[in-house]
Amino acid sequence: MDYTTLGSSGLKVSPVCLGAMNFGTSDAVAGCDETEAARIIDAFLDAGGNIIDTADGYTGGQSERIVGRAVKGRRQSVVLATKAFLPQGPGPNDRGLSRVHLTRALEASLRRLGTDYVDLYQCHQWDDSTPIEETVATLDGFVRSGKVRYLGCSNFTAAQVVESQWAAQRLGATPFVSLQSQYSLLARGIEAEILPTSRRHGLGTLVWSPLGGGVLTGRYRRGAAPGADTRMGRLRASTLPMARAWADGLLNEPNLEIADQVVKVAADLVATPAAVALAWVRRRPGVTSVIIGPRTLEQFHGNLAGFTLDLPAEVIGRLDEISRSASLVPVNGMTTGRQ
């Protein structure tokens, strides 16, 4: 597997990143138990992958615990990434990017992960209620203490990336080296400003939801309700209005039309729709690593095929054309705070 440096850092990461959002059973939408998660992690590392991404808000902390136990014997070969921002309790200081919350959150993540350092510590989203200087100074302290190696952000706009990097420069603090953003054939909004800004300010890009929540696998059809055992089916059955809205936003007519076209392209190439969608996104300019989130070992192997599939130039052009309308999708307009 080929490796590349993450942004302006010297950290080498694989082109495929294993997302651990589905690891754990406390969340009905996730539902990957520890045994299956360990099998997926072992297969990922054996295939040459090295970066695993989780967050303190995934499956009530189960995800971090599962990942930590699974990599315990191979910790030095893993680039371990986690995130903070989401609520960790009912109190007013139990969420966000303040010094008090980030300090508590990092210590809790280290305990759950069973490690004394995190390779990449990321702000899960922007915090309007905390001065960016406070956040940047706090994160810099983590790096200086040795508890964190590199810093990143997730779901930031281009303007927020610039403001963060400028704050780090003013304070003489450690800058971000990575950004996580939503990117797929269904959501190309980051191409206009975020990808160019990230490159200009030294950030590598880790892209999430490359399969559009599973819509690009071709399993969802017009006029048919999603199966109860599918991701969209579980989201629609959720008690969280935001989860149901996210599913409805993905299962719209334009997206299903794009998915149908991907299915046709895949048939022509004798490949799976998922492999085609992943092969397209991994070769996009500015993309450092693509985050996949398999729930089963079978899904993992199916996703991995997208990193060895070479798309002919005419196929790439065809996919660009059929997904052109997706460039109008608002960046992070369908996020649920999960990734």
UniProtKB/TrEMBL annotation:
Question: A single Pfam family, by name?
Answer: Aldo_ket_red
Gene Ontology molecular function: oxidoreductase activity
GO CC terms of this entry: cytosol
The answer to keyword Oxidoreductase applying to this record is yes
Which keywords appear in this protein's UniProt record, sorted alphabetically? Oxidoreductase
NADP-dependent oxidoreductase domain location: 16-323
Report which superkingdom the organism of origin falls in: Bacteria
Q: Which residues cross the membrane?
A: none
- Is Mitochondrion there in the keyword field? no
Under the heading InterPro entries, the entry gives: AKR_Detox_Biosynth, NAD(P)_OxRdtase_dom_sf, NADP_OxRdtase_dom
Q: What protein am I looking at?
A: Aldo/keto reductase
Which species?
Answer: Microbispora oryzae
Name the lineage: Bacteria, Bacillati, Actinomycetota, Actinomycetes, Streptosporangiales
